[in-house]
């Protein structure tokens, strides 16, 4: 088991390095640099060269990459050219919004998809199955930012139940939680639609296995056979899809946070892109990639908890 964990951790470490190389190379080919963005087009070549030397931009590309990677490993991400503050401080401040938003969206997606998918699989072709299929098709077809706008118009402006946008800060926990409900729901609905289809298909497949039929032949009720035998054995593909959805939730947060004017990582990335703050974009992408890598490592570990056969094989 320990060898399996070490092997997976080493694989993710290699993935992290490869992603960092790709991100650095992409930033290198983008026209302009932080010095040009800070001084503008009216700067003289001498002033521009002096600032580039002060910022270390005149060093060879491989040396700048190694400095940046070394800084990442110790938490030093450089200084934002737009805000003039350490990038790490900016990202920590924005993660305090994005991580709770993503976590709440995951809980909502699972809370919607798991009961809906299992209920649909209990009686294929029934009313519940038809309703789940309709919900899944509609949820997949509609983008999350459009759902966000619809929720603002109906729930926030029309009914006045929840705020339409903004974030008061965690010094007001109740107000902060209410501010995250609508954007989290906007993120969760498309992902829960996908998860509903996966859950239904997986449970239906397991319900046709021999061990479930044996349990039914021994007198187990449909409900017991479903929840005690079928659902636990159908969780591996569901967990796989849930792990993949984390990256979609993070990507969707870029649009949803701007729709709801939330000061999260997505809004920071959008502002940095519009202001050509390349060092911020570079580090935000790496933080997003690290979150996805860690989530996938957690999913691998969760496999061995859910399925004992995988634990013995590992």
Automatic annotation (TrEMBL):
UniProt cross-references to CDD domains, sorted A to Z: TM_PBP2
Transmembrane feature ranges: 12-30, 101-122, 134-162, 174-195, 234-260, 280-303
Predominant subcellular localization, coarse grouping: membrane
Domain ABC transmembrane type-1: 95-303
Signal sequence, start to end: none
Membrane-protein topology: Multi-pass membrane protein
Alphabetical UniProt keywords: Cell membrane, Membrane, Plasmid, Transmembrane, Transmembrane helix, Transport
Highest taxon of source: Bacteria
Gene Ontology molecular function terms on file: dipeptide transmembrane transporter activity
UniProt-listed Pfam families: BPD_transp_1 (PF00528), BPD_transp_1_N (PF19300)
Location in the cell: Cell membrane
One cellular-component annotation, GO: plasma membrane
Family under the similarity heading: Belongs to the binding-protein-dependent transport system permease family.
Protein name: Peptide ABC transporter
Species, as recorded: Methylobacterium aquaticum
Lineage: Bacteria, Pseudomonadati, Pseudomonadota, Alphaproteobacteria, Hyphomicrobiales
